[in-house]
Every structure is written in structure tokens, then in C-alpha cells.
Amino acid sequence: MTEFQAVRVTHEYTQTNCAPPETVFPLLCPVREADWVPGWQYRLIYSQSGFAEAGCVFITEEDGRETTWIVTEYDRAAFRIAFVWVNPGAVAAQIRIRLERSGDATTAHIQYTYTALSQDGNHEVGGYDGNWFRHKMQSWEAAINHYLKAGKCIDASSWE
Predict the structure, then answer these.
(1) Helix (H) / strand (E) containing 140
(2) Burial category of 68 from C-beta neighbours within 10 Å (exposed 0-12, middle 13-18, buried 19 and up)
(3) Which of 21, 57, 70, 104 would be a feasible disulfide site paired with 46, CB 3.0-4.6 Å?
């Protein structure tokens, strides 16, 4: 029996993307994120289609730490996708994204839930406050909208 008490935080954010959901949804994919996220690198572990789909598994690395991602929901018709990612021994996250049409644009409803897996993870999750999350989502919104307008990735200095 352990006395560890995990810290959990959930944040929600609504973005406006300057294209219809049919254009935005395919960009929510490990392969396509390289088109609009500066420096995005991933290693595709499993995907029948070569793109995001239910059961797709991929790995990213940041600061020498690998994160394993799994696409847990993929509904192209309803414009819904969900992921779980895990940094072993530190943090697990659930991400839910639902897109809806708003005229010629898209309203993206995004929810992240972060759960610590250790005392170090508690410290990390403790830093995931509302201001941090809002900045992260605003950077994402600016990057995807830049790509949708310009057809190229935003300059890395403008990212996060």
C-alpha cells in the first residue's frame, strides 16, 4: 500500500480556427502536426493508414524524455479525436478534441486532464496552471491558423 496521492488538473479551452472542420480535423494527427507545429518530431509505432486513427500509437521525445501517445477515439464524421499520453513515472494525460462548424470556420473544444504518477509528477502537474494552459492553447491556435492561412509552419520564435 502506498501513501502517494496523485495531483490531477483538468483544463478546457475553446479555439477558433479559420477553416471548416473538414480542413482542420486531418491536422490533428502525428504526421500532419509536422506541417504546423514548429520542430514537431514523432516516431510512428503503429497505424494501419499511416495517419491518426483509433489505436494509432506514436512516441515523441522532449528534453530526453519519451512520451508514448495512443489515439483512443477517432471519429472523422463527428470531428472528434482523443489521445492518452504517458511519461512513465511522471505524468499521464487525456486529451479530448471536438470540432464544430461555425460558418466558414471551426470552433475547437479542447480538454486536457493531467494526472501525476509520482511525487515528481505532482510537482510537474502543479505547474500546469490556468495561465500556463491558456498560453499553450493560444500558441497552438496561432500556429494552426497561420498554417491554414499561409500554408506553412509558423516561425519557431512565435511558438510557445
Answers:
(1) helix 130-150
(2) middle
(3) 57
Dig out the grid coordinates for 97 from the structure: 478534441
- Strands annotated E in the chain: 8-17, 43-46, 57-62, 65-75, 80-87, 91-102, 105-116
* Residue-level pLDDT at 21: 98
**Residue indicated by cell numbers 479555439:** 15
C-alpha separations of 125 from 82, 92, 106 in Å = 20, 10, 30
Query: Which of 53, 46, 8, 61 minimizes the C-alpha distance to 28?
Result: 53
Angular region, 121: left φ>0, alpha ψ -120 to 50, beta rest: alpha
Find the length of the chain.
160
